[in-house]
């Protein structure tokens, strides 16, 4: 980052500055920040950070006052560490589609015929944008991303390296001669402000569309099957797998390695714990966990009872040994 001052940063963030202006040469956690560094504190202030983002002024310190200090710090990081990009098309890139204004196309990228790329889009090295795709303004496709033909990606999205969007859904029809592949002729729509992690795969639909709702965030190595519909603001941690035709409502949170069978409904605001195996519909605003997944209160009671099973087994065996033999 380039050095700046507390006053310039406060002005850029629209936050009040309390205390003397100071130079900022770096950022660090509150516990280890030094006199030239920026840190944030959501509670008690400690350490030697030269500039703080806190909820209230601190006597004798240089403070940017924010109602949400962590959010203020996140916004500061975006200003202090802007992503490097230089508009222009690398000579080795193949571009058959239409490019908007101020677009970056990296080395060996391919943009197919009929594709439409919005303004200020950044397409990394080796990216494949298939024929007929649409990529919205200010979206970034990191290296080796693949968009199959006809995929639509909205504005301000981030798709990380190796992600594959729009591959065929996994669907086969059983016959006496073996499984017959079901053609996947539907589409995939990724709405605005979505982030998709590295090596995540989102399949196209059978006949209609797979859809990832606005503002949703998918971690690395997530698998989304065909016809799945994620509502807005869903967050799925790494290695989650969602089978075909399952629907998520608004703001669903899913822990890592949870799995969902096909044709389920997960309600608005539901939470599913890491490692859960979901085979039934999850009602809105409930928390489920376990394998098979169930309401958290029920699952915790079962888990609590498990510790008593060895003693119960010993007691049962003792009673069987002590019981008088049955007469034939």
Would you kindly provide a written description of the structure presented here, covering whatever features stand out?
The protein is an alpha/beta fold. It folds into two domains: 4-80, Udp-n-acetylmuramoylalanyl-d-glutamate--2,6- Diaminopimelate Ligase, Chain: A, domain 1 (3-Layer(aba) Sandwich), CATH 3.40.1390; 88-298, 3 Solenoid (UDP N-Acetylglucosamine Acyltransferase, domain 1). It contains four helices and 40 strands. The strands form seven sheets. A twelve-stranded mixed sheet has the order 8-11-14-17-20-25-28-31-34-37-39-40. Strands 9-12-15-18-21-26-29-32-35-38 form a ten-stranded parallel sheet, with no helix packed on it. A hairpin with a 6-residue loop joins strand 22 (172-173) and strand 23. The longest helix has 14 residues, at 309-322. The chain is flat, with a radius of gyration of 26 Å. The N and C termini lie far apart (88 Å).
């Amino acid at each position: 980052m380039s050095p700046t001052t507390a006053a310039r940063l406060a002005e850029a963030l629209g936050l009040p500055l309390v205390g003397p202006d100071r130079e900022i040469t770096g950022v660090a956690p509150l516990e280890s920040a030094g006199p030239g560094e920026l840190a944030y504190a959501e509670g008690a202030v400690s350490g030697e950070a030269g500039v703080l983002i806190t909820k209230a002024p601190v006597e004798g310190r240089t403070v940017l006052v924010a109602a949400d200090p962590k959010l203020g710090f996140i916004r500061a990081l975006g200003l202090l560490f802007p992503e490097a990009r230089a508009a222009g098309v690398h000579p080795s890139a193949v571009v058959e589609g239409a490019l908007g204004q101020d677009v970056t196309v990296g080395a060996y990228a391919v943009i197919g015929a009929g594709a439409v790329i919005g303004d200020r889009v950044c397409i990394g090295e080796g990216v494949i944008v298939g024929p007929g795709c649409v990529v919205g303004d200010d979206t970034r496709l990191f290296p080796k991303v693949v968009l199959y033909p006809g995929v639509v990606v909205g504005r301000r999205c981030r798709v990380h390296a190796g992600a594959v969007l729009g591959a065929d859904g996994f669907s086969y029809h059983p016959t006496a001669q073996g499984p017959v592949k079901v053609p996947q002729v539907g589409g995939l729509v990724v709405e605005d402000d979505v982030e998709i992690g590295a090596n995540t795969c989102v399949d196209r639909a059978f006949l209609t569309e797979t859809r990832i709702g606005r503002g949703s965030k998918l971690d690395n190595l997530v698998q989304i099957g065909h016809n799945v519909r994620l509502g807005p603001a869903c967050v799925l941690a790494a290695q989650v797998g969602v089978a075909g035709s399952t629907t998520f409502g608004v703001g669903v949170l899913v822990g890592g390695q949870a799995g969902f069978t096909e044709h389920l409904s997960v309600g608005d605001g539901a939470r599913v714990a890491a490692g859960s195996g979901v085979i039934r519909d999850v009602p809105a605003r409930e928390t489920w966990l376990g394998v098979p997944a169930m309401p958290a209160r029920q699952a915790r009671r079962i888990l609590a009872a498990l510790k008593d099973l060895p003693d119960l087994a010993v007691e049962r065996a003792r009673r069987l040994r002590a019981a008088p033999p049955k007469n034939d």
